[in-house]
Automatic annotation (TrEMBL):
<dbReference type="InterPro" id="IPR034288">
    <property type="entry name" value="CuRO_1_LCC"/>
</dbReference>
<keyword id="KW-0732">Signal</keyword>
<dbReference type="Pfam" id="PF00394">
    <property type="entry name" value="Cu-oxidase"/>
</dbReference>
<dbReference type="GO" id="GO:0016491">
    <property type="term" value="F:oxidoreductase activity"/>
</dbReference>
<dbReference type="Pfam" id="PF07731">
    <property type="entry name" value="Cu-oxidase_2"/>
</dbReference>
<dbReference type="GO" id="GO:0048046">
    <property type="term" value="C:apoplast"/>
</dbReference>
<dbReference type="GO" id="GO:0046274">
    <property type="term" value="P:lignin catabolic process"/>
</dbReference>
<feature type="signal peptide">
    <location>
        <begin position="1"/>
        <end position="20"/>
    </location>
</feature>
<keyword id="KW-0325">Glycoprotein</keyword>
<dbReference type="InterPro" id="IPR011706">
    <property type="entry name" value="Cu-oxidase_C"/>
</dbReference>
<keyword id="KW-0964">Secreted</keyword>
<keyword id="KW-0560">Oxidoreductase</keyword>
<feature type="domain" description="Plastocyanin-like">
    <location>
        <begin position="163"/>
        <end position="266"/>
    </location>
</feature>
<dbReference type="InterPro" id="IPR011707">
    <property type="entry name" value="Cu-oxidase-like_N"/>
</dbReference>
<dbReference type="InterPro" id="IPR034285">
    <property type="entry name" value="CuRO_2_LCC"/>
</dbReference>
<dbReference type="InterPro" id="IPR001117">
    <property type="entry name" value="Cu-oxidase_2nd"/>
</dbReference>
<dbReference type="GO" id="GO:0005507">
    <property type="term" value="F:copper ion binding"/>
</dbReference>
Amino acid sequence: MKVFLLQILAFLLFGGGIHCQASTRRLTFVVKEASYTRLCSTKNILTVNGQFPGPTIYAKKGETIIVDVYNRGKENITIHWHGVNMPRYPWTDGPEYITQCPIQPGSKFSQKIILSSEEGTLWWHAHSDWTRATVHGAIIVYPKNGTKYPFPKPNAEIPIILGTFKLRVDHGKTYLLRIINAALHEALFFSIAKHKMTVVGTDGSYTKPLTRDYITIYPGQTFDVLLEANQLPDHYYMAAKTYSIAPVAQNFYDNTTTTAIVQYRGYYTPSSPLSLPHFPAYNDTNASVQVMAGLRSLADAEHPSNVPLSPSTKLIYTVSVNSFLCPNNSCAGPNGTRFSASINNISFQSPTIDILQAYYYNISGVYGDKFPSVPPLVFDFTADYLPLEYQTPEIGTEVRVLEYNSTVEIVFQGTNLVAGTHHPMHLHGYSFYLVGWGFGNFDKNRDPLRYNLVDPPLQSTISVPTNGWVAIRFEASNPGEGGFIYKAL
Ligand SMILES: [Cu+2]
């Protein structure tokens, strides 16, 4: 399992009265199979309330919502509130065997969503095995009453869960596209022919406006983007295409471009054929990081930046693709091996009871607390050729315990083991500031000098560039949360 966990549990505090709400809304999610037809093939897929994508949850900043989840499917399930910080309430945030046990078929469990500082677009998805492929939906968080967007109010808002769609627009109007990459692994370039897009928020936090021809959206990320319908009335393709460094010849890469049509209302004859947006090459790593590199938080009086300036805990974590040998080379990976993944050379093994419960009830033998703070073996991480013996990681259920209110910097260093690739990293229960990034090996003396400590973007999912690194900072102030989910989200 490509998951690593960072538990933040130095002091467990239960803030009963922190999130006083006038009323708590209740929603019902019935997880069940439904028959769906796509591209002329019909099959049963797991859904919420029979809908695919699942229902959108509309909320106001600071609201608490209870979702009664009924599992009428055949497999264990949990629902994860992706990008929601869930302050002091990690118990129903989803990840099975980490913060809760799964909901078994035939049973019901009420999960609470506690919104606090998030504002913008988030999403929810199943968090057991690969059920999230079809069990997911949007969470849209509006400004509180009496407050407003830090950009001109758009004429309309459109959630786009990549994979679906058609959009009708009026000339002269501005649309807020709330884009969610719900794909399992794929980083996507997204663009609209002949239109520019202005990014105004990511992962439930606003950004300074960033106008681009295309954006790169990593799995799990959300982008709030303004689209001005300012071109000649016509039909235009909006399209998404995978960014991948996998060699096309090996068939690892799906070269399809998924499209939808932006259709201006009115009477005219649409162009034929429609023009496709212009994309970077599918393997253009430099292009893939340009939007990330341009993101800045608002850092104004109403949306201050609280980036820790001198972190008390500094961690360096290598992020690697690994391989395990299989009997008689019988697995489907390179040379009959089995793919895995690791952080600091430890590949996460799921426990049989959830870690949070084990912590709370002091049950020993479920996890260890020896997660290394720095790579156990230092080598030229991004070298073209690396010794084969480095490919096989240790296996363990190790956590890193952080002091409550400590300020933390983590540098994620990609490695070129097996296959250097980009690694989406996502932290549960926290947003973090992306203070720096680069290609090659992180240099702890030189690179911090060019960190952005003024207006770094606040994210809950980032991507470690292919053969590169990112540095993030946050305050460990949300006990019980902090599962780091690497690639599996
Ligand atoms: Cu998440």
